[in-house]
Design goal:
Elements: H1 2-10, H2 14-43, H3 48-55, H4 58-91, H5 97-104, H6 106-109, H7 112-123, H8 128-135, H9 144-155, H10 157-170, H11 173-180, H12 185-214, H13 217-223, H14 233-242, H15 246-276
Helix pairs in contact: 2-15, 3-15, 4-9, 4-10, 4-12, 7-9, 7-13, 9-12, 9-13, 10-12, 11-12, 12-15, 14-15
Length: 277
C-alpha cells in the first residue's frame, strides 16, 4: 500500500511530462539551436569561397592567433592555481581559509567590464605604477600582457571551483595512508591525488579554456581595439559587425561557435567518464 502511494506521488501525468518537455525543447530551440543555425546560415549564405576568404584575412588570422596565445597562457596558470588552492582548502585548515574561498568566487560576482577597468586604473597613465611602466618601456595596457591578465582574472575560479567540492568529498584518508607508507609529497600527489581528480580537473580546464577564448568584456577594456594587434576573436567580430561587414562577422563568429560545440562534446564525454569512475 505504501509502495503504491509512493509510486503515485512520484509519477507525473502524461500531459505534464509532455508540457515540460515541450517547454524545454522550445527554450533550447529559441535560445540555442536557432541562433547557432543563424550564425552558419549567414556566414555561408554567399557560398564557401567568401566564407573562407573572411577567415583567411590577416586581421582574422591575427585575432585567432592572439586568442589561442592568451588561452595557452591563462589556462595553464589557472590550472596551477586551481590545484594549489583546492588542495589547500580541501586538505588543510588554516587562518584565512574562508577569505580565500570568497576571493576565488570574486570574478563570478564582479562584472568583467569592471575587472578590466581595475587594470586600467592600476596600469594606466594616471597611476604611479603606470607611469613607472611607461618610463621603463613596459606595455601592459593595450598589449598582450593586459589581455592575459584580464583573461586570467575572469577565468581563475573555474578549475578551483570544480576541484574543491570533489576533493572535500574524497577526504584525505588515501593521502594520509600514502604518507604513512613512506611516500613523499610529490609521490602522493602524482599517484594518489591526481588520479582521483583527473576528470574533474579536465572538466574545469575545459570550462576555463572556453571562457578564455570567448571573453569579451574585460578584454575589450584593456585591449585598445588595435586591429591586427590586440583584437581577439570576439573583439574582431564586434569590429566587423560595426563596420556592417556582416558576412565576415558571422564567418569569424562561426569559429567561436565551432569551438563552443567542440567544448560541449568534450564536456559530455568527460561527464560520462567522470560518472563511471
Amino acid at each position: 500500500m505504501s509502495a503504491s502511494l509512493q509510486k503515485q506521488t512520484v509519477t507525473e501525468p502524461l500531459w505534464m511530462k509532455s508540457l515540460l518537455i515541450l517547454i524545454a525543447v522550445g527554450f533550447m530551440t529559441l535560445l540555442v539551436i536557432l541562433p547557432v543555425w543563424m550564425i552558419f546560415a549567414e556566414a555561408l549564405k554567399d557560398g564557401l569561397t567568401p566564407y573562407l576568404h573572411a577567415l583567411s584575412e590577416p586581421d582574422a588570422i591575427s585575432a585567432l592567433k592572439l586568442t589561442l596565445l592568451v588561452s595557452a597562457i591563462a589556462v595553464p596558470l589557472n590550472l596551477v592555481f586551481g590545484i594549489a588552492a583546492s588542495w589547500a582548502i580541501a586538505k588543510f585548515e588554516f587562518r584565512g581559509k574562508h577569505l580565500l574561498i570568497t576571493l576565488i568566487d570574486l570574478p563570478f560576482s564582479v562584472s568583467p567590464v569592471i575587472s578590466g577597468l581595475i587594470y586600467v586604473l592600476l596600469f594606466g597613465t594616471h597611476s604611479v605604477l603606470g607611469n613607472w611602466l611607461i618610463a621603463n618601456g613596459i606595455s601592459i595596457l593595450f598589449a598582450v600582457p593586459g589581455i592575459v591578465l584580464a583573461t586570467i582574472f575572469v577565468t581563475f575560479p573555474f578549475v578551483a571551483r570544480e576541484l574543491i567540492p570533489l576533493m572535500q568529498e574524497q577526504g584525505s584518508d588515501e593521502e594520509e595512508a600514502a604518507v604513512m607508507l613512506g611516500a613523499s609529497g610529490w609521490q602522493t600527489f602524482w599517484r594518489v591525488t591526481l588520479p582521483n581528480i583527473k576528470w574533474g580537473l579536465l572538466y574545469g580546464v575545459l570550462l576555463c579554456n572556453a571562457r578564455a577564448m570567448g571573453e569579451f568584456g574585460a578584454v575589450s577594456v584593456v585591449s585598445g581595439h588595435i586591429r591586427g594587434l590586440t583584437n581577439t576573436i570576439p573583439l574582431h567580430v564586434e569590429v566587423l559587425y560595426n563596420e556592417y561587414n556582416f558576412l565576415a562577422a558571422f564567418a569569424v563568429a562561426s569559429l567561436l561557435t565551432v569551438l563552443a560545440l567542440v567544448t560541449l562534446v568534450l564536456k559530455t564525454i568527460i561527464e560520462r567518464r567522470f560518472s563511471r569512475d
